[in-house]
């Protein structure tokens, strides 16, 4: 029964792009998330092995729009006219690989590399916010573009190590509390820096403790489970080769419970679905039991389908078998 | 993306309502359209750029570009007014500047009420604090007659953090912001504040987390660390006097007692007890004419500068140091070995480190200093390992402290027979005991291992998951 529901996600995803959802103010207020939204939507469709359902015309349209999101400084904004930011630059690069279009990668790489600070951290933009999310965007983007030589990879890793906490897990900046989503950013960054020299078992133990009685994972002690943590932390466990440290079947069941009958996946059972949780739910399922659900496996380091990554030279040595 | 949106029951909107929503949506898009034209100077700048960007921020609080624009406008005004103030020392200019800053803080506070977890808003606020500090510096420079009061925004920022943490005690944006304020000022009473939050709710893991950071930050404040080791018995990562550490342990024991089914309290307890456990040499395993292999009581890293070797009182040049878990192999120039002396140094205390935070990788730099005297003979070698006296006493105190905590957890086990957490906890504490015991008397370690395996069996009966298996595998290796 639940397995059949996966099929419903395709029409849900395909419809996201159609004329504005006039019943939701949320649509208008998420205008700045269009590049990210594009990535989540197309990636989810790719995960369902249905990327051929998107017409060539549509792909061209999206590609044209995506190119217009690139600014003079080489970075990308969340939509046309928006100021550049490392996160949107990263999303744009990922989306371009999904669409099979080319961007000015040279300029994008320069923008991303310029975001690294002397202490190895990465800022989001010229306004100076620093966060492990940006380190991950930096390492991932430049690895995919084969431009790692533009940054100090060693320093990037040493900054992330400062984000480790007494409980063995990672926060977003040094001193920040350990958090499931930042586990993805930090482990992903360290993996791409080829430096996993920290106490992995301690982290795996912390992740193990995030599994709630309903099978879902929460982000921190005493918090509610959320489907997106299935991806953030299970992908990290895959990179660390500790997948069996959580109850995989229970997590799988939880994700299936979060599906909406009309399509899409929500953060928790019976909540409103959205494209973000739909993508992360499917991506996590592709790692947990891709074959059973006929899902295209999403690589745990790059969050792109492996089928696309194998054609990206910069990525090859990092792809998980 | 939206979190926590419960599914609306099939909302049947009237045509009128649909029309209104579409109009509102279109208004937002039209406003944004105009905003971007302004941003790119494709149209004239509005007369009041601040009022305009305020409208936009209230309409679309999540759009970072709007705040980027606003900051550019604000910076221009700060520069302009700042320059005027420097020249004229005019009170009206001063008042304008202060008003500008205070109303910006007020605007952000209003927006934060609706969006307390917005990275965009907290980044903007942080930027404002830095600008207001710069302006305070400017004011100080022209304030010879003390005619101008400094803005001192940071004090009110702590107020904001307190209020917001009262509403949501786990909001990490607020905790991080507060932590940042404390890093640039001396006002935060982190010890008091985190303790207050814990006493309000023993489940507040964020408070324990920041408490752990607070305790880790005081290295450069100890002027005479060697004296403090002797008198206050400090050993290991936590630069707290032992008495203070024991007080803190009582606090967390209370929390465990009140909330024994909660995972976070055990983590903090485990860290407190574990963080002072010592690193030291337990054995010399091999001696050759060009190398020596040492065994430590626990895995070490970053110990390359911890050793000095002498042969017949002559300093030996160390060629290489290889670290493999609990083993360290030191290679030196090949020669006839008769009497070796190996000095084990505590890199942090002996170098009177200026570091304020030691990373977890470097924790084994807190080595127990000792001197090994080794004699090679026909049958092999004999050696003595003499731990520096101050540290010898400290190790015994730590061992006692550890035993007390193991007894405490065993009491919790008695009360909570079906709760796996105290079992997991005692297994970790027994690991610490095993390591410390190896430094005191290797012969007594078997009893510890036996006891641990019994607890492993109990744990497997309660919940035989990966954690239970992992702990069982650790204890089975001996």
Helix content of chain B: 55-70%
How far apart are the termini of chain B?
A: 51 Å
Number of strands of chain A: 0
Task: Please identify the top-level CATH class of chain A.
Answer: Mainly Alpha
Strand content of chain B: 5-15%
Approximate shape of chain B: elongated
Q: Please give the number of β-strands of chain B.
A: 9
Give average pLDDT of chain B, whole number. Answer: 90
GO molecular function (chain A): metal ion binding; Rab geranylgeranyltransferase activity
Function (chain A): Catalyzes the transfer of a geranylgeranyl moiety from geranylgeranyl diphosphate to both cysteines of proteins with the C-terminal sequence -XXCC, -XCXC and -CCXX.
Protein name (chain A): Geranylgeranyl transferase type-2 subunit beta
InterPro entries (chain A): PGGT1B-like, Prenyltrans, Ptb1
Keyword list:
heterodimer, A: 321 residues, mainly alpha, Glycosyltransferase, B: 478 residues, alpha+beta, Immunoglobulin-like, five-stranded antiparallel β-sheet, four-stranded antiparallel β-sheet, 9 strands, 12% strand, Prenyl_trans_a (chain B), Geranylgeranyl transferase type-2 subunit alpha (chain B), transferase (chain B), EC 2.5.1.60 (chain B), repeat (chain B)
Describe the model.
Chain B: GO terms for molecular function: Rab geranylgeranyltransferase activity. Chain B: Catalyzes the transfer of a geranyl-geranyl moiety from geranyl-geranyl pyrophosphate to cysteines occuring in specific C-terminal amino acid sequences. Chain B: Keywords: Prenyltransferase, Repeat, Transferase. Chain B: One of its GO terms (cellular component) is Rab-protein geranylgeranyltransferase complex. Chain B: This is Geranylgeranyl transferase type-2 subunit alpha. Chain A: Keywords: Metal-binding, Prenyltransferase, Repeat, Transferase, Zinc. The complex is a heterodimer of chains A (321) and B (478). Chain A is mainly α. Chain A has one domain (4-318): Glycosyltransferase, CATH 1.50.10. Chain A has 15 helices and no strands. Chain A has helices at residues 2-5, 9-15, 25-29, 34-47, 56-68, 86-99, 105-113, 132-144, 153-161, 180-192, 200-208, 227-239, 248-257, 275-293, 306-309. Chain A starts with a helix and ends in a 12-residue tail after the last helix. The model of chain A has no long low-confidence stretch (mean pLDDT 93). Among the domains of chain B are: 26-151; 280-387, Immunoglobulin-like (Sandwich); 407-478. In chain B, the strands form two sheets. Chain B has a five-stranded antiparallel β-sheet with strand order 4-3-7-8-9. In chain B, strands 1-2-6-5 form a four-stranded antiparallel β-sheet, with no helix packed on it. Helix content of chain B is 58%, strand content 12%. In chain B, helix 2 packs antiparallel against helix 3, helix 9 runs parallel beside helix 12 (263-275) and helix 14 (389-415) runs antiparallel to helix 15 (420-440). With 478 residues, chain B is α+β, with helices and mostly antiparallel strands. Chain B is built from 17 helices and nine strands. Chain B has helices at residues 15-39, 49-59, 64-88, 91-114, 119-141, 153-167, 172-184, 190-200, 205-215, 225-232, 242-258, 263-275, 347-350, 389-415, 420-440, 445-462, 466-476, and strands at residues 281-288, 291-296, 307-311, 314-315, 318-324, 327-332, 339-344, 370-377, 380-387. At the A-B interface, helix 3, helix 11 and helix 14 of A face helix 1, helix 3, helix 5, helix 7 and helix 9 of B.
């Amino acid at each position: 029964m639940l397995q059949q529901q996966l099929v419903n996600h395709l029409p849900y995803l395909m419809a996201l792009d159609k004329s504005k959802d006039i019943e939701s103010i949320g649509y208008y207020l998420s205008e700045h998330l269009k590049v990210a939204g594009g990535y989540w939507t197309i990636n989810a469709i790719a995960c369902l092995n249905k990327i051929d359902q998107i017409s060539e015309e549509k792909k061209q349209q999206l590609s044209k729009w995506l190119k217009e999101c690139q600014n003079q400084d080489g970075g990308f904004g969340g939509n046309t006219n928006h100021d550049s930011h490392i996160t949107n630059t990263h999303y744009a690069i990922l989306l371009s690989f999904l669409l099979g279009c080319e961007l000015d990668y040279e300029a994008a790489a320069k923008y991303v590399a310029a975001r690294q600070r002397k202490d190895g951290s990465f800022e989001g933009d010229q306004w100076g916010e620093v966060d492990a999310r940006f380190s991950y965007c930096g390492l991932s983007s430049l690895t995919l573009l084969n431009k790692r030589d533009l940054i100090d990879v060693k320093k990037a890793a040493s900054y992330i190590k400062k984000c480790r906490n007494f409980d063995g897990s990672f926060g977003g900046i040094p001193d920040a509390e350990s958090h499931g989503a930042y586990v993805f950013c930090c482990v992903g960054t360290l993996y791409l820096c080829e430096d996993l020299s920290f106490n992995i078992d301690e982290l795996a133990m912390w992740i193990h403790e995030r599994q709630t009685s309903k099978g879902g994972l929460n982000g921190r002690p005493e918090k509610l489970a959320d489907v997106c943590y299935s991806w953030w932390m299970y992908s990290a466990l895959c990179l660390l080769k500790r997948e069996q440290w959580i109850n995989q079947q229970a997590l799988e069941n939880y994700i299936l419970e979060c599906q909406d009958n009309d399509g899409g996946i929500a953060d928790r059972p019976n909540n409103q679905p959205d494209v973000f949780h739909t993508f992360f739910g499917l991506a996590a399922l592709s790692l947990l039991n891709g074959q059973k659900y006929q899902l295209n496996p999403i690589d745990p380091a790059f969050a792109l389908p492996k089928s696309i990554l194998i054609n990206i030279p910069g990525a090859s040595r990092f792809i998980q078998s | 993306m939206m979190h926590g949106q419960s599914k609306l029951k099939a909302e049947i909107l009237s045509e009128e309502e649909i029309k209104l929503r579409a109009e509102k949506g279109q208004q937002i898009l039209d406003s944004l359209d105009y905003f971007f034209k302004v941003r790119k100077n494709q149209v004239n700048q509005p007369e009041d750029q601040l009022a305009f960007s305020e409208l936009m921020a209230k309409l679309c609080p999540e759009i970072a570009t709007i705040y980027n624009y606003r900051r550019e406008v604000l910076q221009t005004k700060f520069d302009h007014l700042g320059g005027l103030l420097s020249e004229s020392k005019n009170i009206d200019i001063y008042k304008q500047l202060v008003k500008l800053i205070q109303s910006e803080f007020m605007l952000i506070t209003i927006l934060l009420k609706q969006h307390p977890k917005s990275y965009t808003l907290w980044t903007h606020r942080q930027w404002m604090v830095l600008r207001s500090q710069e302006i305070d510096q400017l004011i100080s420079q022209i304030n010879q007659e003390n005619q101008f009061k400094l803005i001192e925004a940071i004090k009110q920022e702590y107020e904001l953090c307190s209020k917001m943490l009262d509403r949501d005690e786990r909001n990490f944006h607020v905790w991080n912001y507060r932590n940042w304020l404390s890093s640039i000022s001396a006002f935060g009473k982190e010890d008091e504040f985190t303790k207050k939050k814990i006493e309000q709710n023993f489940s507040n893991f964020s408070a324990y987390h920041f408490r752990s950071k607070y305790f880790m930050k005081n290295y450069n404040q100890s002027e005479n660390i060697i004296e403090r080791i002797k008198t206050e018995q400090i050993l290991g990562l936590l630069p707290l006097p032992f008495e203070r550490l024991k007080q803190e342990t009582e606090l967390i024991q209370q929390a465990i007692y009140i909330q024994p089914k909660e995972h976070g309290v055990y983590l903090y307890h485990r860290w407190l007890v574990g963080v002072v456990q010592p690193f030291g040499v337990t054995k010399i395993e091999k001696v050759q004419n060009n190398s020596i292999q040492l065994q430590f009581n626990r895995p070490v890293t970053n110990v390359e500068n911890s050793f000095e070797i002498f042969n017949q009182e002559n300093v030996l040049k160390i060629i290489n140091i290889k670290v493999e878990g609990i083993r360290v192999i030191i290679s030196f120039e090949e020669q006839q070995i008769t009497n070796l002396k190996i000095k084990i140094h505590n890199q942090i205390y002996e170098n009177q480190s200026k570091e304020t935070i030691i990373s977890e990788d470097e924790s084994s730099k807190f080595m127990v200093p000792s001197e090994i005297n080794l004699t090679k003979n026909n049958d092999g070698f004999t050696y003595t390992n003499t731990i520096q006296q101050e540290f010898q006493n400290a190790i015994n105190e730590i061992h006692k402290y550890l035993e007390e905590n193991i007894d405490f957890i065993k009491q919790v086990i008695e009360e909570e027979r079906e709760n796996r957490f105290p079992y997991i906890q005692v297994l970790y504490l027994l690991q610490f005991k095993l390591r410390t015991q190896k430094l005191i008397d290797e012969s007594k370690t078997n009893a510890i291992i036996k006891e641990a395996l019994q607890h492993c069996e109990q744990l497997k009966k309660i919940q035989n998951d990966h954690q239970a298996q992992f702990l069982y595998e650790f204890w089975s290796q001996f």
